[in-house]
């Protein structure tokens, strides 16, 4: 007997191509589309940031007035509806004062001072807009479940279980809350508590209080029906003090409701057989084009000609990414015959350090500060290996893309990197890359040397590349797992339904 079709609202603070600072935006674009492809009614809701119109089809106002209580005053916004490039319905909660800005969360000088207010408005405004949408004869749509993502939506489950608990239209909504990166928690001073509209009885260790402050992420962890994070290993790691960010106790208490679901990638968008940005297209059955892409990358970055390993990185320049290890290991990596290419931006001290390394090693180290999607694709396609020595990595998308392009990853075995990259066995010719365990220069260099040794044997290397390209990290399997969890959350919320 077929299962009934679900109605799901996916809430996120950023969704590609409308707004993007990181992997969340890619997930918030691809996962709803994959769930919809399974036959479910999925819609997306995000803030109406500056410039979203350029990427949206059929944009129109559906709820012209959304009144949102903010303590002793009311803010007014509006709900817009459009279609994303794939044709999926997407809602935008508009309020120009909050969202018509240059950045999503802040500037180079730091976070916006009113981020607490901005995302209280987003969480509660979304629920007020949903209520109006469900009562509007022209739309009359209401989800069964809200899939909320990261701290910016953390108050949604809190509101549903408290302020809207007895609401006839919203009180029975189930919630699934996904942690994409526990390092970002949305922590604000307690003076903003009245603005939330929540009672002080929730400002306790059992509620949303966190060392004397409000913690949005904790709200989602405590009040959502089910919790997920973006890899199975990360789901275990965040229950420990080393990775839990002070919330490991909360996560341990809810361990029965916490599930790890590995992110996917859009295998049509990331496909070396069709990618127009790379020098030539190629496949696992015809790897000649991979060598052409390698030569084109070498020329584009001014690398010396030679048979050594070309190691690529496309990354945010942040301490999380293990870039201090890379800088320390770089002389030995070069001594092993490797060349190094990096594309990224971020912390000024890291930008400066890698720029200096390129100046000291011309022809061996090449660095581009900034980001270009086309250039990133040429690194994925042209590098021999892709490096991700992260301190922690909830899931990681770079290694999934690298596998798709036949660029075996060198990764630290943490989070999603541990779940997605299998060590290459030269005897059995199994595995897809070169993981290492300890966060140390010695273990990183050991992994690089293993890669260099395999790379010298053309037959072994070709087998490894084909293994990598044979992995399937498309969104379909993850979407099916999420649908199962949606149904479980619905049963938990409405056991008699």
Short description:
The chain is α/β, with parallel strands linked by helices and 497 residues long. It contains 17 helices and 20 strands. A hairpin with a 2-residue loop joins strand 3 (57-70) and strand 4 (73-83).
Structure description:
There is one protein chain. By secondary structure, this protein is α/β, with parallel strands linked by helices. The chain folds into two domains: 7-264 and 476-493, 3-Layer(aba) Sandwich (Rossmann fold); 288-472, Glycogen Phosphorylase B (Rossmann fold), CATH 3.40.50. 36% of the residues lie in helices and 21% in strands. The chain contains 17 helices and 20 strands. The chain has helices at residues 23-37, 96-99, 115-135, 155-161, 193-196, 216-223, 232-237, 248-253, 288-301, 323-335, 348-360, 373-382, 398-404, 415-420, 441-455, 458-469, 475-493, and strands at 7-11, 41-47, 57-70, 73-83, 89-94, 106-107, 110-111, 145-149, 174-179, 187-189, 209-210, 213-215, 226-229, 258-260, 310-317, 339-346, 365-369, 385-388, 409-412, 434-436. The strands form four sheets. A nine-stranded mixed sheet has the order 3-4-5-2-1-8-9-13-14, sandwiched between helices. Strands 17-16-15-18-19-20 form a six-stranded parallel sheet, sandwiched between helices. Strand 19 (409-412), helix 14 and strand 20 form a beta-alpha-beta unit. Helix 1 crosses helix 17 (475-493), helix 3 (115-135) packs across helix 4 and helix 10 crosses helix 15 (441-455). The longest helix has 21 residues, at 115-135. The protein starts with 6 loop residues before the first strand and ends with a helix. The mean pLDDT is 96.
